[in-house]
Design brief:
Hydantoin permease; Pur-cyt_permease; globular; mainly alpha; transmembrane transporter activity; transport; membrane; about 500 residues; Allantoin permease
Length: about 500
Amino acid sequence: MSESTATSRLSQSERTLVETTGIEVIDEAQRTARPADLFWPWFAANVSVFGISYSSFVYGFGVSFLQALLVTVVGVGLSFFFCGVIAIAGKRGSAPTMVLSRAAFGVNGQKVPGVFSWLISMGWETFLAIMAVLATATVFDQLGWASGTATKIIATAVVAALIVLASVAGYHTIMRLQSVLTWVTGAATVAYIVMTLDRIDLGAVTGREGASLEGVIGALVMLMTGFGLGWINIAADWSRYQRRDASGSAIVFWNTFGGALAPVLLIIYGLLLIGSDPALEEGIVNDPIGTLATILPIWFLVPFLLAAVLALVSGAVLGIYSSGLTLLSLGLKVPRPTAAFIDGTILTLGTIWVVFFAQSFLAPFQSFLITLGVPIAAWAGILMADVVLRRRDYDERALFDPAGRYGSWNWTSIALMAVASVIGWGLVINLFADAAPWNNWQGYLLGPIGGKEGTWAWANLGVLVSLAIGFLGWLLLGRPVVRRQEEGV
């Protein structure tokens, strides 16, 4: 292909309103993104006042301000670093995360972690849409406008439409939107901080008593699961357009920096703000963004609402786009825009159910998130180890051929993920036993360290243990597998 032809194809692709590329490998001419480009989607998806509300969840573990500060920097930063490691695979194979994972699990074996990936993505997308609808109703109520069923129906329709349309449009449209949304949501977030600074009471914040090691680890795991580990299953989806000569370390840096910067700063501010006001800490449990809006002047409520909703939509768009790709990797034979539309429809139905029929959503969601977080952590450990072990780019053809070098099923990695998950589930408990009794089966290995009622039960050690078993296990067991694959045996 001549240079002029390649440039023409790239230009035409980027001008197209709807991306038709599905899970196939990105054409060489379209791999033009730079590592710094990864900053925009990750930053835009995480620069939201919703991040401030996480400080309430951190304080829920009984930690002091300094302990909370430590777990915020370490937990959020480390979790997005993990995303950055997996993003390297996107550059090496120019395919979605769940397709690249076939190298470790087999072309058909990848469907096992793929199902978990799809479920956790759909959970996050629906959660973000729900937050946007509830925030709209609360702000309308603060303004003295209608905030009942009709308002929620309209808000649900608008939020769902924005998410679905952007995700159906695809990569190039989303990247442009994210670069714009970053400035809009960032400016509104800075304005929120300026307007609420006078509410901080340093004496009340620094006077909080500290927690034991168990509480600190629990807060750390919650932040890791809520941020980077919640995105890790789609990390390579946004690096698959990177040039093949892009620096792996630069990809890791920009992924980590873009994803972690806003959450770290926002949670730290939230620790100061919410640590000064017990009423905010309590209200955030059921309506995080709406509660944060209650302390704003009336004139700023509409700009605040628009920025908050757009930030939530931004995050949900990334999720819908990637969950659609995961559906395709599971074998659904439809165009990529159709897969995104299917997931958008499911998101809309889920939002309607929670907003209009469910009595509580945050507690069951967090229970759901922790449960799925265990196998996803095991998968992430395996894939990170796989990235570390590989020295060559992926065999693109073999990623789609069960008879190729990656095989149909890799029972070693599947068994490792299963063992890590079983052990991991045994070391976590359902933190919301009353709201989600269907999930009370976990924690069966906690007996030697105090049982389900002991202090270690709340630390959610299972997520970290599952991640470590996956990573260390595949470093040991996967080394000969990767060597044979790269030698073409």
